[in-house]
Amino acid sequence: MILLLSVLLNALTVLSWIILVWVILGWVLMFGARSSFAWRNRGVFDFLLRLNALLSRFIHPLLRPFRKLLKPIRVGDGAYVDLSPLLLYLAIILAQKLIVIAGSAILSR
Length: 109
What we know:
Blueprint: H1 2-33, H2 37-40, H3 42-69, E1 73-75, E2 79-81, H4 84-107
Antiparallel strand pairs: 1-2
Helix pairs in contact: 1-3, 1-4, 3-4
């Protein structure tokens, strides 16, 4: 049972890192598209776009329930801030804490 909890804890840790990379990659792509980075480094930019598409296919189904709870917030002229990745990240942290508590309860028996 402890092995299962350990594997689940590690999987949640990897998922939290993937979410962090995906969010930062989104920022890089947004600012890169608005600057000369996109046309000066076309190969790198295309690779980042493909990586973002791959990560998005994995993360978007996980974000769907949180997007129903909290819609993107409009800031400025047509810009939106999506806080659903933050809610997902907090849910992962909560799940990790619960797994640690369950593991310590199992070990203390």
